[in-house]
Design a protein that fits this description.
alpha+beta, globular, Nuclear Transport Factor 2, Chain: A, six-stranded antiparallel β-sheet, 6 strands, 8 helices, 193 residues
């Protein structure tokens, strides 16, 4: 679980564009660069308490991550269909909160790291963009996977951290909980955190 939180932290630190604009294909690299700078400025801002940092990060992260799709893919088709409409809303809310809390709890660790953003690549109807940072002498690479939302432009739906998909990692963890109890058991466990 701790390793997954590190991955989530790296994901959210290394990508979050301008808070007022949707990602467009032609500006993804520039938007990512601006986002990285915004996130690092938030982490360095000693005038903000934890709640202030949370609010500032929400403005940066929310417009570009599709937490609903990430949650749905992380849960899997069968488990998603087993939830009522209200349970789906609650799951997405809890999933989003869990992801953001994991990041926020480790925000200061990466505030001074240099992050490099590479050129985006078109992969079928998707865009992949790689970023990396050097952490404790090791190069940490992240691959962001984006799809084009009908109304919101390009949105992140998955991230590979050092070759491991966050969606797949979450799915493995969620499947283990569901097998031991149920989808409702997973919801209960998420409510506890």
């Amino acid at each position: 679980m701790k390793k997954n939180f590190l991955h989530i932290l790296l994901v959210l630190l290394m990508l979050s564009p301008l808070s007022l604009f949707a990602l467009t294909e032609g500006s993804i690299k520039a938007d990512v660069r601006v986002a990285v700078d915004e996130i690092q400025n938030i982490s360095k801002n000693s005038a903000l308490d934890m709640e202030g940092k949370r609010h500032a990060l929400d403005k940066v992260i929310d417009p570009i991550f599709d937490f609903t799709l990430m949650g749905k893919l992380s849960l899997g088709k069968t488990a998603w269909k087993a939830l009522s409409k209200e349970e789906r809303k609650e799951f997405v809310k809890l999933f989003t909160q869990r992801t953001k809390n994991a990041y926020l709890s480790k925000l200061d660790i990466y505030k001074d790291e240099k992050i490099t953003v590479l050129e985006p690549k078109k992969v079928k109807k998707r865009i992949h963009i790689s970023t990396y940072l050097i952490l404790e002498g090791e190069r940490k690479e992240l691959l962001y996977k984006l799809y084009k939302s009908k109304k919101d432009g390009w949105k992140i739906y998955d991230v590979d951290v050092i070759g491991v998909s966050l969606v797949q990692t979450n799915r493995s963890q969620f499947d283990a909980i569901i097998k031991k109890s149920s989808v409702q058991g997973l919801l209960e466990k998420l409510r506890e955190k």
